[in-house]
Amino acid sequence: MIWLWMHLFSWIVLLIVVLFAVFSRNGAGKLLKMIARICYMVAIISGIILLKYAWETSPVLAIVKAVLAIGLIGFCEIYFSRKKGVGNSIKALLVTATIVVGIIGFILAGGRPF
Ligand code: HEM
Predict the structure, then answer these.
(1) Which residue ranges make up each domain of the chain?
(2) Would 10 disulfide with which of 39, 62, 89, 107, CB 3.0-4.6 Å?
(3) What is the DSSP string of 39-87?
(4) What pLDDT, in 10s, does the model give residues 63-96?
């Protein structure tokens, strides 16, 4: 199913962008921010379409996943807006949050990536 592939791909790209932003000295440049925002849009549109299927099996987890994902998008944007003085614990939290949203997504998808 193309929507699941697009959703999975947007997570992989977003994770790479977050790792670059966290490990690069100057934080996230314009290009990284733009790529991240395209990932958000693809994830939200494909996520809403996937919600229809996930709703039948696990409505509660589907809502939790959607809320956490929107929270992650907000966290990314706050992080990207900060250039300096972001502590390592915040960086670790952002990477962990990106991975956790993905793991909850895999659980919701029945453990299968495609
Ligand atoms: C940055 C935001 C997001 C990320 C990083 C993300 C990540 C993921 C990942 C990695 C999966 C597993 C995909 C797979 O099994 O191949 C997934 C599944 C899912 N996501 Fe997201 N997601 C995001 C946003 C959203 C949003 C906004 C919604 C709903 C409005 C959503 C709804 C879902 C649903 C319903 C599934 C399960 C699909 C299925 O049942 O096969 N996601 N997500």
Answers:
(1) 2-109
(2) 39
(3) HHHHHHHHHHHHHHHHHHH-HHHHHHHHHHHHHHHHHHHHHHH--S---
(4) 999 999 999 999 999 998 876 677 889 999 999 9
Q: Classify 82 as helix, strand or coil.
A: coil
Q: Nearest CA to 65 among 36, 106, 93?
A: 106
Nearest CA to ligand 1 atom 18: 105
Alpha carbons 106 and 97: distance in angstroms, whole number: 14
Which amino acid residue places its CA nearest to atom 35 of ligand 1? 51
Which residues have C-beta within 8 Å of that of residue 20, sequence separation ≥ 6? Answer: 28, 32
Say if CB 71 and CB 35 are below 8 A apart: no
The pLDDT value recorded for residue 83 is 61
Ligand 1 binding pocket, CB closer than 6 Å: 4, 7-8, 11, 14, 40, 43-44, 47-48, 50-51, 53-54, 62, 65-66, 69-70, 72-73, 101-102, 105-106, 108-109, 113-114
